[in-house]
Design goal:
Structural class: mainly alpha
Distance between the termini: 50 Å
Oligomer: single chain
Strand order of the largest sheet: 1-2
Radius of gyration: 18 Å
Number of strands: 2
Shape: elongated
Helix content: 40-55%
Order of helices and strands: HHHEHEH
Length: 115
């Protein structure tokens, strides 16, 4: 980010926060619409178990530990150009929250945990 942008955003921080508070419903609707589109492009269900009941339970997993992958979460979908997301969507895997936890914590499988 250039010095000009940093200065501009620093000077207009309060104005931006006020706009975000006043438009949170619009922002949330735009995020959900974009997430829906990305979820559908990835097949509309968990790529491991097939879960497809609730979009809130579906997340994008970075199989390479975010190295070279999409650095943004779904929260950035309100500001990121959806056409730009096409490049990044190929670098992630759509999984449900349960499968996501299993991918991040394989050592905690019930049968493997020592008591």
């Amino acid at each position: 980010m250039s010095k000009y942008n940093k200065k501009y955003y620093a000077e207009h921080r309060e104005q931006k926060l006020k706009w975000q508070r006043e438009n949170k419903d619009k922002i949330r609707a735009r995020q959900r619409k974009r997430k829906h589109g990305l979820v559908m492009r990835k097949g509309g269900k968990c790529e491991r178990c097939g879960y497809d009941k609730n979009y809130a339970a579906l997340v994008f997993h970075h199989p390479n530990g975010r190295k070279g992958a999409w650095k943004g979460g779904v929260g950035l979908l309100s500001s990121e150009d959806p056409q730009n997301s096409a490049f990044h969507i190929d670098e992630v895997v759509l999984v449900c929250e349960n499968c996501h936890k299993e991918l991040h914590y394989p050592e905690l499988q019930i049968l493997k945990v020592q008591t």
